[in-house]
Amino acid sequence: MEGRFQQNSVSAPLHKANAVLRARSRTHFVKEFPGPLSIKSVTEGSVAWKCTGRQRLVDRDSFLVLNADEPYSMSIDSRTPVSTLCVFFQDGFVESVHASMVRNELSPECEPLPFIGGLHSRDDRILPRMHAIAECGTSDRLWLDEQFLLLARDLLRLNGDMQRRAASMPANRPATRAELFRRVRRGQEYLHASACGDPDLAEIARQACLSPYHFHRAFARAFGETPHEYRNRLRLERARRMLETGGMTVTQICGAVGFESAGSFSNLFRKSYGVPPSALRPAKIRKTR
What is the value of pTM for the model shown? Predict the structure, then answer.
């Protein structure tokens, strides 16, 4: 389309090799694509990926894990460019890493490995490594191969953590615990997408098809924090990133991330990071305001 900017770069054939896809576009559409095991992230703007009948909104503070052959759709139609960064794993690659981790054999047999897919909050392992892989390109193949191995290891550790959280759900039967965790994750994804808004507990629990009490109890058990604490943490993390990049005042950022009171925002920020919001403003901006 005229007036639209699009830039795509894929590092290797999908399914046959580990690959990185970087794209920057104002308009882009994918419909029911059954790709390999992948991790989706966004470095500019936000994108809604639709899979298993639901949309997951991915922004700079989250990433999405999709299983192999899990069809997904996505659409970008934005006034400003949206940038995505996705890693696709070679078929069987992560399974081979898992087999080597759990079996002390020269050639361990690989078995199918279902992942607990879905949206995850920004972390200090997977997203930083994805960015490092993307920035390196293909100039150092040995280093790149090692990074894909480490990324697979990190993904396996994340999956193990998800399985432990599912097993901790307050229910007697394993199938009931798995279903309860799946519903709690639906509520978590909704809360992540609406963290800058003001949904009440009943609204979030409806998305999870649970009563407010049941959802609140299970959420706290799964994530070690209440929905309110989780939402505030997301808001503060987004505020910190916005403060470090500059361009908006502290008051503007306070409102943009969903806080109504500048005083409560500053107090929570200082409690979480040990400094007031103004301390993270770029030096040149602090001097001019």
Answer: 0.84
Architecture of the domain spanning 230-288? Orthogonal Bundle (1.10)
Residue 61 has pLDDT above 90, yes or no: no
206-214 long-range CB contacts below 8 Å, 24 or more apart?
208/183, 208/184, 209/183, 210/180, 210/183, 210/184
Q: Are both 6-165 and 230-288 of the same fold?
A: no
Other residues' Cβ atoms within 10 Å of the Cβ of residue 186: 20
Average pLDDT, rounded, for the chain: 87
- DSSP code string of 229-266: HHHHHHHHHHHHHHHHH-SS-HHHHHHHTT-S-HHHHH
Distance of CA 287 to the CA centre of its chain: 35
Q: How far apart are CA 169 and CA 85, in angstroms?
A: 33
Domain positions in the chain are 6-165, 168-224, 230-288
Give yes or no for residue 286 having a pLDDT over 60. no
